[in-house]
Amino acid sequence: MYYACDEHIEVAIDMIVDEVELAPVVEKINEEKAPLSTTCSFCESVAIYTVDS
Ligand SMILES: [Zn+2]
Known about the structure:
The chain is an alpha+beta fold. 23% of the residues lie in helices and 21% in strands. The protein has one helix and three strands.
């Protein structure tokens, strides 16, 4: 699973598609999935989405 900010959501989607060749599941982060202070997997910004295969 990747965490992505607004800027990197498409990067995260591309990486999942490359890995599993399926459309990823994109969800807005909520406290059940991850702390709201979780940072993006690709930069230092706060993540807004989780991208899961
Ligand atoms: Zn980012």
